[in-house]
Amino acid sequence: GERYEVWRTNPYAESADELRDRVKGVSAKPFMETQPTMDALHCDIGNATEFYKLFQDEIGEMHLRTAAPPPAREERRCWRSTLDKQLRKKIKL
């Protein structure tokens, strides 16, 4: 949960790239710029996609397809709730 907290709260007010480095991101693909301080669960899909990639090992299951069309709102909501559930389990909220 520690890296998730760093990602979510961005305590050092870093740029998205610096933040990704800090949480040991593995993806070289830049995500859409958002306010890095926004909660990862509630910001745009680019950030959520990046978050999924960063934490796929820990989260276990990946709910993304590469080279897919932009997801529908329902699908995004589904991802978000899945991610939220997994994270709650992971960090025992």
Automatic annotation (TrEMBL):
Pfam families with a match to the protein in the record? RAG1_ZnC2, RAG1_ZnH2
Task: Supply one GO BP term.
Answer: B cell differentiation
A GO molecular function term, named singly, is: histone binding
| Signal sequence coordinates | none
Q: Please list the residue ranges annotated as the V(D)J recombination-activating protein 1 ZnH2 domain.
A: 36-93
Tree of life domain:
Eukaryota
Q: Which InterPro entries match?
A: RAG1, RAG1_ZnC2, RAG1_ZnH2
The record's Gene Ontology cellular component field reads: DNA recombinase complex; endodeoxyribonuclease complex; nucleus
Query: Where in this chain does the record put each V(D)J recombination-activating protein 1 ZnC2 domain?
Result: 2-34
UniProt protein name: Recombination activating protein 1
Organism equals: Gymnothorax minor
Q: What is the lineage of its organism?
A: Eukaryota, Metazoa, Chordata, Craniata, Vertebrata
